[in-house]
Amino acid sequence: MTPIAYHALAAFIVLNAVILMVTYVTLLERKFTARMQSRIGPYYVGWPHGWLQPIADALKLMMKEDIVPTRADRWVYNLAPIAFLIPCVLIFATIPFAPGLGVADLNIGVLFFLAVSALEIVGLFMGGWGSNNKYALLSAMRAVNQIISYDLPFVFAALVPVLLTGSMRMSTIVDAQQGLWFVAYPVIGQLAFLAFLVATLAAENRVPFDILEAESELVAGFRVEYSGMKFALIQLGEYAHMLGASFLGALLFLGGWLGPGPAWLGPVWFIVKAMLVFLVVTWVRWSFVRIRVDQILAVSWKLLLPATIVLLLVTGLVVALGGPGGA
Amino acid sequence: MERNGSGFLTETGQLVRAVGRALGITMRNFFRKPVTLRYPDVKRAYPDRFRGVLALTYDKETGEENCIGCRLCEYVCPPQVIKVEMLKAEKRNYAKTFTLELYACEFCELCVQVCPTDAIIMLKTFDLATADRREMLLDKDRLHALGLEHDASWATGNRLRDMQAPPKPAKAAAGAKGDVKETTE
Amino acid sequence: MAQQQVVELGYGGNERLMMNMGPQHPSAHGVFRMILTLEGEAVVAVEAVIGYLHRCHEKLGETLTYVQYPSIASKTDYVAAMTAELAYVSAVEQVGKVEVPKRAQYLRVLVAELQRIASHCLWLGTWCMDMGGALGGGATVFLYAFREREMILDLFEALTGARLLYGFHQVGGTRYDLPAGWDARCRETIAFVERRIDEYEAMLQGNAFFLVRTQGVGTISRELAQEVGVVGPLIRGSGVNYDVRRAKPYSSYEDFDFAVPVETAGDCYARYRVRMTEFRESIKIVRQVLDGLPEGPISSRPGVKSVGQVRVAKGEGYAPIEGPRGEVGCYLVSDGGPKPYRLKWRGASFTNLSILPHILPGHKVADVVAIMGSVDPVFGEVDR
After folding, report:
1. Of the CATH numbers 3.30.70.3270, 3.30.1460.10, 3.40.250.10, 3.30.70.260, which one belongs to the domain with range B54-163?
2. Residue ranges making up the domain that contains C120
3. What residue in C sits closest to B153 (Cα-Cα)?
4. I want to staple A119 with a disulfide (CB 3.0 to 4.6 A). Which of A39, A87, A192, B16 is the partner?
5. What's the gap in Å between the CA of A231 and the closest CA on chain B?
6. What CA dihedral angle connects A249, A254, A256 and A261, to 10 degrees?
7. What are the tens digits of pLDDT across the range B138-158?
8. Contact in structure between B155 and B110 (CB atoms under 8 Å)
9. ipTM score of complex
10. Distance from the A215 Cα atom to the nearest Cα atom in chain B, whole angstroms
């Protein structure tokens, strides 16, 4: 098979797998949070555990009327969901699910991931602007503020494993964790993982940092004018980004596909670890009230950014003094 | 969030503890039994005094209709949903027509309380959902049929009035709450 | 009147955005419209528009008799129906000089305090949901609070047959007496609720996210509170010790030992503390009532036999009640017949809402919902 055909097939498979996983991860989240709130989540559709609920939701969204507000900027409005979805799904291109099993295991894998995942802001702002709606615009502006502020700590926290490994290639980072997962490194690992989780919460607009979609004030934020399939694309993008960040966390800190058992169990372990990160983020999401946007920015610039810079410098010092990794 | 060097660690410590406490409570609730009731597969037990759909009753011994068409319920109803026409007969009166607009009913139980013959009662069901509003305009036959189909609530006119009346010595000797023993659930 | 012109955004300093919040809004505690003038993210002016829930209660008070109206009275403050009915029947009893038997008074206190607990559960749940989002941590506290509120509503259902709008009070006493076994069930429920309140406090109290959202936000100074005339937890959170249950005791409240919480900070956190303490004090009162409930009739008038059976002598009067939101009362003018000549409702939320144009300017948009939640309005009371 020619390389192009091979890569096209791999991309197709990964894309479909990602979309399926994203759909079912919404069910996982709903059941998990329901239990935390003393209730059962979806159970009727796809008795007894609501297995068909995501399919029903997807079908419903596909069947809805496609409404475009009269004074919306048509091109910007219609392209925004796609511009939002593409980076969120593209990040999965660099994630290897097993040694050699991935679409493209770039030697700048982590850089590609971090750079592309930040591109979602463009789609987000397009959505907010194109909707011609004050609420949407307000939320989009808050979002741009927030995501830009938190991308820096996100990058710095993600760079700690890169420093400890000495390479940005994702499979190399996982291989370097054969002895000890990076999260288990004394102090540096735990702090970096914690900073990574907090930055993920903020970059994904999850409570306590979800001021941009604050249902009680902004009624879904920049998504407020979207319905039907466009809304589905935006939801897909959000959860795909969330899942991508979980996979990155599992890969950088929790040892990726490393785990007891035969080699073919690797991807399973990887998915389990990613789900674990996802569930921890969900757990935090459902336990706290949100904080105001100026307080969010204060946390980022006054607390998280200096902390991650210091962490990075300390990691560099450790590496220079003969710790693991190099370069 | 101002931070200075000396207070930083204590504040962070407090934050971590508070975060941990909140997360702990959420996780504790995770392991508790959910309180959801899977209605309509599972129905909960309604208390004795439940105020549900209204119905007309027959006398237990003679099988005659209890309603004497006195129209007290019509007069007392705050949203005026009851309309009664009296039919005079030799020994006692009857209701010729009795309509109750359930879609406007408040379920305040005043008609039940005022009824001298315990004719109109409320049932332990509220499940009369329908797609056609006209089915909620209950006429006399429908009301009697409902009374036969479902369990009646404990509250009838006489029992409620007995509960409210100051206890008379004779009644106090016989038992002030009426003839039927009432349970709570 | 609000201008229809909208000035589009700019950060030149003078360009302002007029944003409409409501009347259909996930956060407003009912149908309420606020026209906010924003400069960037800060609120500069507020224009509040009410009246979306006007249902002519005062006119209904003139057309319905004293027998029919109590169950309608519960629909003004539908979240705390017991205290709303109590306000009406207290006014009638005051004007008509009707005696209420001791047992009925104790039962009224019992249901009023249970209703206070249930109403505060709803307040906590909806406030946290506004601050945390329907899909976030706020919803968790909302569902927990409603889980406890449901237990109290079950108690009310066993007592009256209805869960939300009871029709429990009547002129001269109450309509229902306690069924068998209710006493034990009530004690169990409040013990359970008490433990759960400990959990809510643990979840929110030291939580930096919560504190940062509520401390220093929406501060009502003592002078402003007294000038505008807010009532209930709002004024007690600003340092004024005014509780109708102590100032003008009604329905045997003087027999019970309870504390009235007063905080001086005046911000959302102070009002939160006041209401959380009120939870515990209400539980104390409920226990005292259950322990000391006297035997006797539950009404000084016979049961309802006809629609016009209650006649009140000519006169007028006002009987205030401490509802969960503050002082609720009816001003009744009677002309000697079976219906009032004039019925005026004093709704606690109506005066509490009038504080908004004074405290909102200067805060950010996100604080608007936090402040609205801590004011805890119910629009049945506001619009009547």
Report:
1. 3.30.70.3270
2. 57-383
3. C161
4. A87
5. 30
6. -150
7. 999 988 998 888 888 888 888
8. no
9. 0.81
10. 21
